[in-house]
Amino acid sequence: MCDLFVLAWLWPYAETRRKCARSWSSVVRLMERYPEFTFTCSQAQLLQWVKEDYPVLYSKIKLHAAEGRFIPVGGTWVEMDGNLPSGESFIRQFVLGQRFFEKEFGSKCKVFWLPDTFGYSAQLPQIMRLAGIECFLSQKLSWNLVNTFPHNSFWWQGIDGSTVLAHFPSGDSYAMNGTVSEVIKCAENNKDQGRADISMMLYGYGDGGGGPTEDMLERIDRVKNIDGIPRVKSSTPDIFFAQLAQCHNLCKWVGELYLELHQGTYTTQAQLKTFNRQCEVLLQKCEFLQAFVYANKLKSIVPVRVMQSTQKYWETLLLNQFHDVLPGSSIEIVNVEARQMLSQLKKTLIADISCLQHSIAEFMQASRQGNRQALTRDSYIFNSLCWERQEVVAVPHGTVEMPLQLTAEGQQLLLVRASPMGVTSTQSCSQLLAPDQHARIKVTAGEVVMSNEHLVACFDKVGRLMSLKLQGNAKEAILPSHPGNQFVMFDDVPLYWDAWDVMDYHLQTR
């Protein structure tokens, strides 16, 4: 059974918190009447909300979970988008989710449950295996617009060679009603007959919650052993995948599971996506600085508040990576709330990072001088990445006693080489730009030519890139009929879902 809860879509988060109580109260009552009834529940965030808002209901859920009837699945904090988050965000979904399930229910999930997101990154199998998950369930690729996905049961191999056992229910739905026609469809639509003659049938009201009803359970009970239709048996995800693993000659799919639909979700609600990426980067910087403080025993010089766990920050970010929030496919009230949450998270992280950097720099300057009061005008470069970086940075005027290019704000531009995962002073890592490293600009009446030691680029008076060549090479990278750096507009009139889709025929409307 599957009760897919959409955390936010045509309703905000606050309504989902109430939906959980209504849906799962019904499930608990049905379990009291139907002893064979089992129910799957994904998304740790939902259970956390019920624990906070409805503790009596939560205690009943835990009792049925101990009986093996209310079954946590998924292993993630929410059912996230499968394309847009960073690799670190994918990992944190599993870390926070599995940690919650193990603490609250005594064991980690074994099945990754993501039935409704818009495609699946090829890095997921590796992350799943590292999180202790060996099986994967979805059904969204049945929505492909052009090519029918060829399998229902198969091995999915990621980019590092990790494999997981995958199943796409042949009913092509996560919200069936348990009717005879649906049972027959599940059997006839199985694309792997002869290799795997079993399939899940997921029933119950999904999206907005509700779950199975009494009528559905009665129908399922009646079709279990009727001549002329496929055999139906109530089961659990673990039992199903254990049986599926015994099937021989299952095919293997290597790489991304690409959904041939909903490509507009890569760009819809661009500001929300920008906040998401900025918060991902800022969280990495914040945790790097916290680790630097701990590793160098500097905790005493840093305010306590900025050294607290970042878990609450991650919970906010991961919540807003839900597969109808981050893609931008929800109503406006959801988009507004998500932007506000991420905007506030961004401000908080910037303040924490600034405090950490200032405290570390102050200590290092004082240590270098041998006197905490004798602070110098030196600046420090923080490199939170795990490789050496050489970049041009802006530092306060007077940091380096040499003539340097200035910004409009009066800061000096300095070429620095920063060691990986470390902090270095500008005095020890700065370099002067050699004359041939400076960009040269030549302006004429009709064009602007920019060049350095590598490239020569020519722009016309409206900013279009008319020519791009390597130094010393006559080969032209820009066709005269197709200038670069152009803003091009197209009509965006999808067939069905305007927030989700960009149809290929839009290219004809330039």
What does this structure look like?
There is one protein chain. The protein is of the alpha/beta class. The protein is built from 12 helices and 16 strands. A 5-stranded mixed beta sheet has the order 3-4-6-5-7. It has a 4-stranded antiparallel beta sheet with strand order 13-14-15-16, with no helix packed on it. It has a 3-stranded antiparallel beta sheet with strand order 9-10-12. The relative contact order is 0.09.
How would the blueprint of this fold be written?
Blueprint: H1 13-33, E1 39-41, H2 44-53, H3 55-66, E2 70-72, H4 87-105, E3 111-113, H5 124-130, E4 135-137, E5 153-157, E6 163-167, H6 180-188, H7 214-222, H8 237-245, E7 252-254, H9 270-295, H10 311-319, H11 332-369, E8 380-383, E9 389-395, E10 412-418, E11 422-425, H12 426-429, E12 430-431, E13 440-443, E14 447-451, E15 455-460, E16 465-470
Helix pairs in contact: 1-2, 1-3, 2-3, 4-10, 9-11
Descriptors:
510 residues, alpha/beta, 5-stranded mixed sheet, 4-stranded antiparallel sheet, 12 helices, globular
The secondary structure category is alpha/beta
Strands, count: 16
Largest sheet: 5 strands, mixed
Percent strand: 5-15%
